[in-house]
Structures are given as C-alpha cells and as structure tokens.
Amino acid sequence: MADSRAGRGGRTQEEIRQRHLGELLRRVHVEGALSRAALAGRMGLNRSTIMTLTAELAAAGLVREEKPAETGRAGRPSLVVTPEPERVFGLAFDVAVDRLVAARVGLGGRILERREAVRPRAGVDLDDVVGVLAGFGRELAAAAAPGAVCAGLGASYCGMVRRADGMVRYGPHLGWVDQAFGAKLADGLGLGLPVEVGNEAHLGAIAEHTRGVGVGADDLIYLHGDVGVGGGILVGGKLLDGDGGYGCELGHMLVNPFDGRPCLCGSRGCLEAEVGEEALLDLAGRSGELFGRDGIRAVVALAGQGDARAGRALDHIGDWLGVGVVNLINLFNPAVVVFGGMLRDLYPGTAARVRSRIDAHVLPVSRERVRLATTALADDTTLQGAAELAFSALLADPLETLTARPPSPGRTADRPRGGS
Ligand SMILES: [Zn+2]
Question: Which of 193, 282, 317, 369 is deepest in the core (most CB within 10 A)?
Fold first, then answer.
C-alpha cells in the first residue's frame, strides 16, 4: 500500500525518525558522551537533523546536552550528548549456579546499585529464586532517583530459555525443566513490565561485544564457565542462536566421545565434562574438599605453587579446552575468543596448552589473526548482558517505550518526560 509519507525503501518519515532516535540513543548508551559532530559523522546525518533528534530525546529526559571540556581549538565547539543514567534505568538479574545478582543499571550501562546473594546449589526451588530476586528488584527500583523511570527488565539464566516468554526449558545445573521463570519474576516484581530472559552465555557474548573485550569484533565467540560451560557465537555482530533460540551449546560440543568423562546431559566427552569444575577438582584430587569458584581458584594457585597433581589437572583442562577452541576457530574464523565466568580464572593457567593445540590444528589462515582473551567485564559480563536486554525495547523505539512505562515506585515525583 502506498503511503504519501513514504521515504526511501518504503519507510514512512515516522519510521525513519523512530529508527534515527533509537540509533542515536543506542550510540550514546554504548559509547558514552558524543559530540553532535561525532554523532552526525557516525550516523551519516547532517548536524541540524542531529540537533532535532537530540532535542526530542532531551525533552523526554533520555539525554542531556553539555558544553564540552575546553578543546583549545578555535571556533564554536559542538555540544556533547550524554545519556541520563539516574533518570532512566533498567533492572538486570543474573541467576548463576552459585549466586543470585540484581542491579539497577543506568542508561549508558553503568551499574548504579546492586544486591547479591550466595545460594546453595542443592534444592533450588523456582519460588525461592524468584522470591530473592524480586525482593532485590523492588528495593532497587524504590531506591531510584525521584521521577526516574524503569525502562525494562532483563535476566540472565544459566540454561536454555524460551525467549518469547522467559520459560526455562532446560536448566540441568539447577534441576529446572519448563519453569516459568520470566513470568513469575515479573509477577513478583509487580512493576507492570515483562522480564526478558536470555541464556547467560548468549548475553555474555553480546555484553563483551557491546562494552567488553570484543568491541569492534563482529565475529566473536564467548565461552562461559559456571559449573558447566555455555557459549555464545556472534557472526557479523548477530547471535547465532538457532531455530528455537537454544543454539550455541558449546559446552555439549563432543570432543572426547570414546573415553571421555560422563556429562550431566547424559552424553560422554562433552566439552563441559572435560573442562568443567567437576573435572578439574576430580583430576586435582580435591573433589569433595574444594568447591565452586573458590575451589577452582585454589587449584590454579596450587598448580602455580608446583603441586604436580594440580598442574596435570590444568594441563588436561587446557588440552580439551584447546580441542574445543580449535573446532570453533576452524568453523567460524572469529576475530576473538573470550573466556568468562570460571574460565576467566582457568584460562591463564591453561593458555599455553590451548595455544599449542591451536598451533597444531587450526588452519593457518584462520589462526593468524584470532585473539584469545579473558572478559573485560570481570564477573559482570552476564549481568551486563541482562541489562542490554532490559534496554532493548527503549533503544528500538525510545519515545513510545518511555511513554508506556509507569513511573518507578517509592521515591516517585515528576516524570522526566516533558510535555504530554
Ligand atoms: Zn553434555
């Protein structure tokens, strides 16, 4: 159907404006303060269009414009556009195997306030997890600045998640099958907003690409160690999550099928069975004695002090991690492979083994440029990924999304949105 307002490619002027508003807001959200001139250059628009777009976002309380610091150059300096982190925030939640985390994250990605609970692994009940996280979330929302608006809710979960409704389909490490996590958390929070839920390693890949060690690398592989190993693969900047969103299960990539260790999934010789926490502690002779993230760090420290058994355990992990990474590099030719979660602790002590596998088995043309790195976001990679989910609706359509959001509870005063 023809539309008299249709512009290039059949888009209406309104659609083009909405897309530009979203892109401008995304740029300052991701890159921080940018001058109007820099925005014009990045977006391929003229300065007067940038000025109009910025004015709309500023009137809505999403950005502010400031004079830049003295540049020393002649001429009128271009105003700098900065996101408003205190007035517009998202709530991010992270369900890892050993801990529950919630945070209020400002527009621009800075964690403003957080709550964290250590959680026992056994007997994990959906209602208990939701109860803790919803309590944290309500406190964090209530502590927001007067008039602040919650733009959205995002959660990271250590298992396979149905994106449409946040249903955890399979979360073996917590023993969850078909648990309505997203819906129950939304109910518990009572903020009138849905909770977007994603797989932790998928979100980790997005976070490292957006703000971490993978900025500028559109072909990125993220390996996340918790008890098991999860993965996220970005190709051309897009997540390869498959038909149902359950893809990138790199932890269940088969690396050692004939005499490999049994895996929680029922198979044998999966990557996570060979490089996970249980394998490391067992091989180091510390099963039942050490536990979790602290246990992994202790084994790495022992190996560093010359403990031969701990050293051999790390060598085993390095060999099989190397085999997994070799396959991934040959398949996807990534610019960077990122190690997060407990693999952030394990990788430095296994790097020589991983590299020697790569030297031996990766095709030279794929090997010559690939970078291996640990996360730049420390233990907040998955939480930051959840925050990006929380902001996704706002960044897709800033003004409409903001209009639809209720003011946050507690210290509510005037809405930041001007006009209407
Ligand atoms: Zn498996």
Answer: 317
For residues 177-191, give the mean pLDDT. Answer: 95
The per-residue pLDDT for 244 is 87
Centre of ligand 1 to C-alpha 419, Å, is 55
170 CA distance to ligand 1 middle (Å) = 13
- Between the CA of 92 and the centroid of ligand 1 the distance, in Å, is 28
Number of domains in the chain: 3
Q: What would the pLDDT profile of 383-393 be if each residue is shown by its tens digit?
A: 999 999 999 99
> Rounded to an integer, what distance in angstroms lies between the CA atom of residue 216 and that of residue 43?
16
Q: 127 CA to middle of ligand 1, Å?
A: 27
pLDDT digits (tens, 9 = 90+) for 309-331: 999 999 999 999 999 999 999 99
How many CA within 13 A on the CB side of residue 185? 32
Assess whether 172 and 191 both reside in one domain: yes
Residue 43: closest CA among 58, 57, 23, 63 = 23
pTM of the predicted model as reported, rounded to 2 decimal places: 0.92
Model pLDDT, residue 163: 87
H or E stretch covering 277: helix 277-283
Are 165 and 287 part of one and the same domain? no
CA of 390 to the centre of ligand 1 (A): 30
CATH code for position 284: 3.30.420.40
The answer as to whether 9 is a domain residue is no
Tell me whether residue 246 is in a domain: yes
Confidence at 84, pLDDT banded by 50, 70, 90: very high
